[in-house]
């Protein structure tokens, strides 16, 4: 019997094709699935549908929990190119347990806990035109907001072993995007400083990963309440930009005029100017956010004088997701959870996300998911 490598890089037994044949034991005939036509939160509907049967290279996963991202609002709201052309199951992030497998599956067996990568064709290496297709969660590819989901065996990644379902559900987009920026593009090292804008899902992950790597995050927020929560996470360096609007000047003060080694730019728009002013000569900026708009008036002279590298960050590959799961386990990183809703309250959860006042991830639990204490 040979071996394959799971998402944590550890060996697990692999069997000849067909050994893990599908079994209907314990699997009902029907399930609840939620769909959207891109016509708003109020029109998100659920229905009882047959549970799909895995094809030769597919696994059937019982979803335990999903977490929400701003992108889900764009799909459900039918915004621009995120609008579905036909009903689609939304929500990109999720985690679940394999219950049956196709006759040709060798990587997974019933009982394995997995997640689907956001860009399922992006297995490893750089993102390309060929792999930048079919993102999970609409408007074309189905998402995770169903009790059972089919996943191609090569598009599944072993979930974190140390996290419960609620926390593990947050890794496939926000978590891996932060890991892409902090661990791959910026390659943050112990002793370095990292400016992280805001306290959204990616920002909080980036700050936590920075801490775990032995570096110092400097995190901005407009809320004293959120700054208090940052301090409780062990993040000592913070800036309230309502009281101290010149973020760059404050960063330079905190770094003895040197500037930070790296910036995690999650705001976008003209905020990139603040990042350019705050970063050190030869530093890097990981550009993620579009909250402040898709265009900006940028001081391009700063690019030259700072000799700065700006990276565009698009989520992460399946390989990165596996690395993140292993890193979380090895370093005891626990994702920040704002709130947990049962799936019957999915519309309330989306409205909560829409308000933008959350601190940490909003998670939805499916029937039968283990209870989690926050």
Explain how this protein is built.
This protein is of the alpha/beta class. The protein is 25% helix and 25% strand. The protein is built from ten helices and 17 strands. Helix 7 links the parallel strand 13 (260-265) and strand 14 (279-287). The radius of gyration is 21 Å and the shape is globular. The model is unreliable at 1-24 (pLDDT under 50).
Going by CATH, the architecture of the largest domain would be Alpha-Beta Complex
Helix content: 25-40%
Strand content: 15-25%
Backbone structural class: alpha/beta
Oligomerization status of the protein chains: single chain
Low-confidence stretches: 1-24
User: Could you state the order of secondary-structure elements as H and E?
Assistant: EEEEEHEEEEHHEHEHEHEHEHEHEHE
The helix tally amounts to: 10
Distance, first to last CA: 42 Å
Provide the gyration radius in Å. Answer: 21 Å
Largest sheet properties: 7 strands, mixed
Shape label? globular
Per CATH, the superfamily of the largest domain is: Medium-chain alcohol dehydrogenases, catalytic domain
User: What is the total number of structural domains?
Assistant: 2
* Overall pLDDT score: 90
Please count the beta strands (DSSP E, at least 2 residues each). 17
The CATH class of the largest domain, by name, is: Alpha Beta
| CATH fold descriptor of the largest domain | Quinone Oxidoreductase, Chain A, domain 1
């Amino acid at each position: 019997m040979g071996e394959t490598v799971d998402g944590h890089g550890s060996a697990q037994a692999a069997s000849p094709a067909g050994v893990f044949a599908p079994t209907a034991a314990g699997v009902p005939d029907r399930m609840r699935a939620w769909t959207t036509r891109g016509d708003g939160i109020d029109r998100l509907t659920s229905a009882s549908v047959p549970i799909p049967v895995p094809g030769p290279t597919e696994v059937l996963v019982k979803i335990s929990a999903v977490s929400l991202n701003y992108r889900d609002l764009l799909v459900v709201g039918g915004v621009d190119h995120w609008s579905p052309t036909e009903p689609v199951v939304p929500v990109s992030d999720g985690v679940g347990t394999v219950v049956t497998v196709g006759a040709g599956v060798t990587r997974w067996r019933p009982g394995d806990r997995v997640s689907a990568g956001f860009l399922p064709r992006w297995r490893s290496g750089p993102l390309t035109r060929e792999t930048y297709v079919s993102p999970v969660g609409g408007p074309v590819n189905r998402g995770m907001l169903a009790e059972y989901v089919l996943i191609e065996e090569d598009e599944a990644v072993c979930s974190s072993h140390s996290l419960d379902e609620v926390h593990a559900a947050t890794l496939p987009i926000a978590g891996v995007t932060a890991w892409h920026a902090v661990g791959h593009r910026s390659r943050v090292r112990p002793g370095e400083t990292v400016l992280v804008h805001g306290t959204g899902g990616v920002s909080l992950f980036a700050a936590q990963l920075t801490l775990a790597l032995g570096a110092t995050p400097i995190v901005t927020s407009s809320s004293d309440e959120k700054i208090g929560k940052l301090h409780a996470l062990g993040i000592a360096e913070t800036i309230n930009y309502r009281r101290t609007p010149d973020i760059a000047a404050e960063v330079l003060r905190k770094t003895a005029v040197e500037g930070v080694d790296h910036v995690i730019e999650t705001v976008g728009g003209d905020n990139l100017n603040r990042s350019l002013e705050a970063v050190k000569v030869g530093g890097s900026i990981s550009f993620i956010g579009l909250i402040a708009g898709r265009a900006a008036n940028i001081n391009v002279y700063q690019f030259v004088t700072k000799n700065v590298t700006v990276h565009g960050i698009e989520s992460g590959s399946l390989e990165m997701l596996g690395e993140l799961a292993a890193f979380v386990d090895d370093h005891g990183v626990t994702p920040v959870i704002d709130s947990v809703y049962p799936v019957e309250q999915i519309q309330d959860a989306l409205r909560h996300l829409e308000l933008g006042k959350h601190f940490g991830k909003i998670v939805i639990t499916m029937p039968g998911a283990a209870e989690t204490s926050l």
